[in-house]
Amino acid sequence: MFPFRLKPLVGACLLCVGASSHALTIGEIQGESHLSAYQGQTVGGVDGIVTAVDARGFWMQDVIPDGNALTSDGLYVFTNSRGRPTVGDRVLVSGRVDEYRPGGAANNLTITELNTSFGAHAWTLQSRGNALPAAIQIGNAGVLAPTTSIAPDVGNVETSGHRLAPSLYAMDFYESLEGMRVSMASAAVVGPNAKFGEIAVISHDQLGATLSNARGVATVQSDNFNPHRLIVDDALRSTPIVNVGDSLANLTGVMHYSFSNYKLNLTDAPIVTHGNLLPEAVAPVAPNRLAIASYNVENLAGNAAQTRFDSIAGQIVGNLGSPQLIALQEVQDNNGATDNGTTAADQSLDRLTQAVRDAGGRDYGYVVIDPLDKTDGGQPGGNIRNAFLYDKSVVSFAGGLGGATEAIGVLPDGTLTLDAGRVDPGNAAFVDSRKPLAAQFRINGENFVLVNNHFSSKGGDEPLFGPDQLPERGSDAARLEQAQAVADFVGDLLAADAGARVIVLGDLNDFQFADTLAPLSAAGLLNLTDTLPEGERYTYIYEGNAQALDHMFVSAALLANASLSYDIVHANAEFANQISDHDPLLLTIAMPVPEPETYALMMSGLGVVGAIGRRRRRALSAR
């Protein structure tokens, strides 16, 4: 086996073996499309300056750029364990041109690279301590990514013959910079590094180019998913802890691609300016108001640390103002991911309700139906399900529960066959997914029907920055069927009682403009998300895209309440330190006023009916 730092003459001979007839530039290897024209060929004498090094190889860049905006001047060299140069070295490389697909996943684009990990392929050192090529500037009078389109609608960008158009399409823009040094003078954080150390940023020059709001998010629209976003990755050095609204200056790294995104692999420490964004909070619920919330508590298990329960309780009391009714999603069983057949969640909910009481909140009861083991999806062994919390002093629940496979129905008078039950649990749409939980509650003599949902995730969808354009949304079909099943139940309910107070709420895992949610609107419900300013329509931030996945749909009877108020309480999604990855929803309306007869029945148990009668007689005699 040859040494890696070869003598120039020996290296030159090796470079001749099986190589192309002339030494190619990096720009020629990269070419003007997503795949190199030299894929599978061995090339030699590729000259470049090393700009960054990782555990399995290094990035290098042409000494003299070719001036072609369609071709990248940077390239990754894969060495595996065969040695690596240092930053600033000028090297000659011999290797096979590969199009490496990260993770082998068909949904990922490829990275054009030189593979020197086998045979006689190697790199040779020419000199050390060279100045690095100037970084391409994004913003600050430099280049800017397109803000309207990610990619052309051509099918597969790798096989369609598509030629890069970086001035039109953001995916082509970043592809034309693959492997190069890139800098951003000033960038706004639009996605916190809550997981994996990644930060989503947008050049300050483009922060208002698409839908945003005063908190600094980049909200998606039906025809725009913020193509100009860029992910800053910690693959080469750690990233700072930041929230939405913070700013980063002097961001410098090498452009790479992994996990379905172009990423700036940070090589230099950026300057951080904190925007000091605060979680939103509402005032405590007034006595004359009824508040109903929805909250995805992100895999809350009965064996979680007490701090987790205290944090969620703190948000229920402090950020949501202690609603009288809360629909919870992602409540796990008592031992969480431990897969031993346990499905009960009484400890999970007992600990949460006790934590709320300890935080000075309401005395909640809860409504839950345990699923069959490993039938509702989510983390294996966790058996996530939906549940309700209700204030026992204000909200009445009769207590009749159905079983895991028992469907709840509608009676001719508009009441339900069970006080709480699952909606169409035998429907194939809910296989390996959460079953909707419907319950009827009485508040001051008025009946409210809530349907708590957690639809199938978007995990089956192709990525925005993937080879197939436009991406297929393979998960849509399941959610459409799930929404239809809920809509059928609501339709039966409203047919029996057109004045029914119905709320369909929860984590519906799709956008307010998605076709998958159309059956709920067709059933006669209004999505309250649509009543908010467009920039405020988000409950979740994914890769810097602020989006509404959680919703509340209400019937006409609730819309008739003139004091209806609805909000998404932004307390989680924008922050690196998250209690949950979802923001909660909050609806408030005027508290129902009981009819006199109902009020008398309510108060009789307190021994005050006689006092009420005496006050009424005194009032009449005084007229």
UniProtKB/TrEMBL annotation:
Organism expressing this protein natively: Denitromonas halophila
Phylogenetic lineage: Bacteria, Pseudomonadati, Pseudomonadota, Betaproteobacteria, Rhodocyclales
UniProt name for this protein: PEP-CTERM sorting domain-containing protein
Domain Ice-binding protein C-terminal intervals: 592-617
Gene3D superfamilies linked: Endonuclease/exonuclease/phosphatase (3.60.10.10)
Alphabetized UniProt keyword annotations: Signal
GO molecular function: catalytic activity
Keyword presence, Cell division: no
Superkingdom of origin: Bacteria
N-terminal signal peptide: 1-23
Endonuclease/exonuclease/phosphatase domain location: 293-582
NCBIfam families in alphabetical order: PEP_CTERM
Classification via SUPFAM superfamilies: DNase I-like (SSF56219)
